[in-house]
Design the sequence.
């Protein structure tokens, strides 16, 4: 799809991200960067649903919570990290599927409610009943994840994998069908899209990055994270990531996450506070987010020039 | 492929049989609603048959599988897609499984490249080559009508229901009609043209 | 057991009164027959604003809570209208306006939270009111629920009605949250802070079952408030405190599914 972030830009960004913990080894900075990457994973999980299907989805914290519980349970039982990764992704996808399965008809209208309900149930009913476990961060292929830098690089690897998967999906017929079904459903239907299967596969896939975000949160906490990390208020913040940055584009997710983690870091304000206000600003003033506004700027400028020329001509 | 349409749309009859390889113009007071019903995207009031085989009502995907494409000459706004992506929407070949797509396997990349090459070739033939990498948003109405035609033709249909873009300046509408006529002549495509005018006549 | 019940009654009544008035506001502000998902967070904003200014004086805290909540309610109304009526080539996603308002209120609430806050499992209003304050909050909430459905007030312009609703909610929520009682203990600013998102969900649940009927809103609000507080008193960490609200929402959805009549019009 037509993202503003081209291949050289992606490479430069990746190089900067890899170099970050070596340039800024302060543990506080590295921990903040891990939190930023968790926000990116949350934004990537919402991108196909919010950006392409143009639907409000609030179940990402629930997917992250179940991913965190699955991963923490396995890691506390001394299971290997790859198994925990698979379990976290699968748990996230399964949780997202519950939300879409509860919305068999008119998913664009019903999914916001069912996804909110799933988050409320997981946060309010299930998480308080989960047995609290703790574990030491494992050693993975010779790298000791107890160091914050190693944990950052592992999280970055998850982000890179999810970005690549999202880009691959965007380039495929499945991705095009999803984007068309959200923006112009008639065109998608006339092009042979099967709405039910598009919704199921998109929402299920969206749960995987959220589950990985939960895994990273569990690794940071070395146990099941506190339930406040997966509350409905957090769902607002996570929803603000794609909406503020530009929901249909990967670059939009990166911009949104950078703003929603950067502003609190610079001002001392709470992430949820900035996220909530950012969500309101995006909904009111930035229908295509910051990236969408930047992309439309040359087109609008040309239009204004044309209008100016037309009004100036005799 | 013979296309038969019979029933009522928005309170007015729509009954026409288009012989295989022919171009027939049908008129209706609400041709947009008629196109939507025939496309299977709106509640059905008509039966649609291809070579005598009745198609399920309100089943747009089934129509494409059966070889019937519908171009309404309207697309709307698709901000996250390029023009070439819209043409590729219409392609109807086998796709790799989802896990291969997500992992970006060689097979998935090959299918993607083949799809894009086919879409670019078709769009070039129809006169869309210069705009293929632009975003499919804010397109001129004539380009939008041509692009929807290209999308519909991308699946290689045997029958096409085409809503003539009568809202365009006559010269633009004629130009697009000439493109459609060229494809009709090239592949002996069965074409049902929907218009808003009151009379029914033979096509080009 | 008797003492447990008695301890749960006052906070339960206080929460019930606030839920009643907030559910009426949510039902009235909703569109297409569904309650507004976001506006129910207003009591949380009021309680947090009061808690933040409590160190100055209880009077200032009350006035600040009323003013902040009224202004935020007005901003929420403008946001709601703007998102619903946005002119864009693409349709606005369903529920985006509700979620944007919820985001705004949760965001403002979070910005009002003290930097070092401790969440205690004392309920979504964030505090344990004294008997007098709790009863006052309950009475004001119940009275506000009926007042806001009065024909003369419903005839007000939408922005004025929303600001008035914010004021009424704040007047009920501040005593009900027990914020003012914390002044003497010096606790309220940092401990037991309100949960705007949780309040919004409970208000929406009550509004689903009570719709726009103030009497039903009072009944269901008090029922949910008392049941939740009782659950919290008996088993503070069980995670079952949300069950009464979920049960109310389920009852409302089942009743709606059983009704043959179409959804009511959106006009107030």
Sequence:
């Amino acid at each position: 799809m037509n993202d503003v972030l081209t291949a050289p830009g992606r490479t430069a960004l990746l190089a900067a991200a890899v170099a970050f913990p070596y340039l800024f080894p302060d543990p506080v900075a590295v921990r903040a960067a891990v939190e930023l990457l968790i926000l990116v994973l949350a934004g990537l999980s919402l991108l196909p649903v919010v950006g392409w299907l143009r639907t409000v989805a609030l179940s990402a914290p629930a997917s992250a919570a179940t991913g965190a519980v699955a991963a923490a349970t396995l890691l506390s039982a001394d299971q290997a990290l790859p198994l925990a990764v698979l379990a976290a992704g699968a748990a996230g996808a399964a949780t997202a599927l519950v939300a879409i399965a509860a919305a068999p008809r008119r998913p664009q209208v019903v999914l916001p409610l069912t996804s909110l309900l799933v988050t409320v149930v997981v946060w309010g009913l299930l998480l308080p009943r989960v047995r609290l476990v703790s574990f030491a961060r494992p050693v993975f292929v010779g790298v000791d994840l107890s160091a914050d830098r190693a944990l950052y690089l592992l999280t970055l690897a998850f982000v890179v994998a999810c970005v690549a998967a999202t880009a691959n999906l965007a380039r495929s017929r499945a991705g095009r069908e999803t984007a068309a079904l959200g923006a112009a459903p008639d065109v998608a239907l006339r092009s042979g899209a099967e709405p039910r299967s598009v919704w199921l596969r998109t929402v299920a896939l969206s749960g995987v990055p959220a589950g990985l975000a939960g895994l990273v949160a569990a690794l940071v906490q070395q146990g099941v994270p506190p339930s406040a990390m997966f509350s409905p208020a957090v769902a607002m913040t996570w929803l603000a990531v794609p909406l503020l940055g530009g929901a249909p584009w990967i670059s939009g997710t990166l911009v949104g996450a950078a703003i929603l983690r950067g502003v609190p870091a610079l001002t001392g304000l709470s992430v949820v506070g900035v996220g909530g206000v950012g969500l309101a600003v995006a909904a009111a003033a930035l229908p295509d987010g910051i990236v969408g506004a930047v992309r439309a700027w040359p087109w609008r400028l040309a239009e204004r020039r044309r209008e100016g020329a037309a009004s100036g001509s005799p | 492929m013979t296309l038969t349409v019979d029933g009522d749309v928005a309170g007015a009859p729509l009954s026409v049989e288009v012989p295989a390889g022919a171009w027939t113009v049908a008129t209706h007071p609400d041709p947009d609603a008629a196109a939507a019903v025939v496309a299977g995207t709106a509640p059905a009031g008509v039966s649609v048959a291809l070579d005598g085989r009745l198609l399920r009502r309100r089943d747009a995907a089934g129509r494409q599988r059966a070889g019937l494409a519908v171009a309404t000459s309207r697309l709307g706004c698709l901000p996250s897609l390029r023009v070439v992506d819209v043409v590729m929407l219409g392609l109807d070949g086998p796709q790799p499984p989802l896990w291969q797509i997500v992992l970006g396997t060689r097979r998935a990349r090959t299918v993607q490249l083949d799809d894009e090459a086919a879409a670019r070739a078709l769009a070039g033939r129809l006169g869309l080559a210069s705009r293929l990498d632009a975003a499919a948003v804010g397109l001129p109405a004539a380009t939008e009508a041509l692009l929807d035609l290209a999308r519909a033709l991308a699946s290689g249909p045997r029958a096409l229901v085409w809503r003539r873009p009568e809202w365009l300046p006559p010269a633009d509408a004629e130009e697009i009609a000439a493109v459609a006529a060229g494809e009709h002549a090239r592949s002996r495509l069965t074409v049902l043209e929907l218009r808003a005018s009151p009379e029914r006549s033979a096509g080009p | 057991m008797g003492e447990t019940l008695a301890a749960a009654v006052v906070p339960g009544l206080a929460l019930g009164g606030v839920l009643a008035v907030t559910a009426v506001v949510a039902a009235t502000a909703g569109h297409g027959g569904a309650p507004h998902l976001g506006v129910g967070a207003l009591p949380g904003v009021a309680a947090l604003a009061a808690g933040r200014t409590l160190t100055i004086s209880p009077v200032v805290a009350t006035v600040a809570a009323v003013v902040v909540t009224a202004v935020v309610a007005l901003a929420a109304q403008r946001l709601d209208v703007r998102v619903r009526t946005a002119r864009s080539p693409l349709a606005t996603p369903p529920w985006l306006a509700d979620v944007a308002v919820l985001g705004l209120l949760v965001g403002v609430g979070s910005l009002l939270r003290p930097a070092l806050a401790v969440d205690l499992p004392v309920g979504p209003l964030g505090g344990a009111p004294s008997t007098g304050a709790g009863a006052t909050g309950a009475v004001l909430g119940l009275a506000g629920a009926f007042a806001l459905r009065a024909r003369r007030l419903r005839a007000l312009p939408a922005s004025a009605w929303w600001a008035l609703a914010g004021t009424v909610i704040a007047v009920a929520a501040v005593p009900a949250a027990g914020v003012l009682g914390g002044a003497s203990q010096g606790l309220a600013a940092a401990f037991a802070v309100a949960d705007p998102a949780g309040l919004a969900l409970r208000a929406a649940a009550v509004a689903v079952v009570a719709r726009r009927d103030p009497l039903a809103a009072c009944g269901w609000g008090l029922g949910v408030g008392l049941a939740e507080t009782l659950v919290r008193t008996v088993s503070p960490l069980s995670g079952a405190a949300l069950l009464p609200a979920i049960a109310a929402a389920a009852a409302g959805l089942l009743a709606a599914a059983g009704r043959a009549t179409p959804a009511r019009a959106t006009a107030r």
